[in-house]
Amino acid sequence: MKTLLVVTAIFLFPILAFGQGFRALNRQVQQGDVLVFRIAPQWQGPQVSISVFGKHYLPNKYGDVYIGIDKNIAPGKHIAILVEYGRGVRLSWDYEEIEVLENNFPARRRVPGKPRSPGETRIIEEAYSRGNRSEKYIDGNFVMPLDKVVIDENKDVGDTFSPFGGESHRGVDLITLDPRTGRYQRPVKAINSGRVVLARKLSLEGNLIIIDHGSGIFSLYMHLSVFGVKQGEFVKTGQVIGISGRTGRVTGPHLHFGIRVGDPADHLKFPVVDPLVFIETMNRIF
């Protein structure tokens, strides 16, 4: 019994034998951004997690923790600590102070129509549940899903058509229509390596592709005219996965591009983040 107590004490309070257990790679974030922690190798374990914003977040198998900062996380200073997942027992005395900046998301007018059927909601939830949250498929920098094209003086080709709108618009709409030619079908690329967990036509999203990048990170590409990949297929950064279109509930051709950063403990909870800010942040800190 005495040996068991000693082992338990070492596991719960490794600060006595080791240095700092974790660090934040970006201590200041805005709503709609992604917060990244890295747990030191000697501190990693099956129940070791980051406690912040009133929740516990588990790392991938490399010790990285990705947290989506949605609009419901209050602006201001927050303290992050290392804890035993679930019970909340503190594992070290070191901490990180995180500052969340307020972000005012623009409202989006929704296109009238029938809500998504329960069956389609279940299809999307099952796709997320197939994600491998302990793995990390990301390989190098993220890229944009559309190539840059020749932009006219009005900048209405290749630029963002509508901004990220939080819960009111879970992504950005990127222009695909070239007013000079009338063409809108353009190659759509995977923003990073990953596995396709869904490639299917749905009523609202049209032809939809969801890619699992591991660690609870998913990218979404909607309203495609053509699929270039199948469910279960692994893709590389920049690989063409489809052609843009105007399928589903749309008022015109465009690519709806989104990012979800999931809670590894609950695949139904996916904070909404700004995909363009996400790419900028990830490329800056890695």
Total helical elements: 3
Question: How large is the radius of gyration?
Answer: 21 Å
Proportion of residues in extended strands = 25-35%
* Head-to-tail CA distance between termini: 45 Å
Q: From the 3D structure, determine the CATH topology of the largest domain.
A: Glucose Permease (Domain IIA)
For the record, what is the CATH homologous superfamily label of the largest domain?
A: Glucose Permease (Domain IIA)
**What does the main sheet amount to?**
10 strands, antiparallel
Q: Overall pLDDT, averaged?
A: 85
Low-pLDDT segments, ≥5 res = 1-17, 149-153
The secondary-structure class comes to mainly beta
Notes on the protein architecture:
The protein has 286 residues and is mostly beta strands. It has 2 domains: 2-101, Sandwich (Immunoglobulin-like); 118-285, Glucose Permease (Domain IIA), CATH 2.70.70.10. Helices cover 12% and strands 35% of the residues. It is built from 3 helices and 18 strands. The strands form 3 sheets. Strands 9, 10, 11, 12, 13, 14, 15, 16, 17 and 18 form a 10-stranded antiparallel β-sheet that branches. A 5-stranded mixed β-sheet has the order 2-8-7-4-5, with no helix packed on it. The N and C termini lie far apart (45 Å). Residues 1-17 and 149-153 have low confidence and may be disordered.
Give a nutshell description of this structure:
By secondary structure, this protein is mainly beta. Helices cover 12% and strands 35% of the residues. The chain folds into two domains: 100 residues, Immunoglobulin-like; 168 residues, Glucose Permease (Domain IIA) (Distorted Sandwich), CATH 2.70.70.
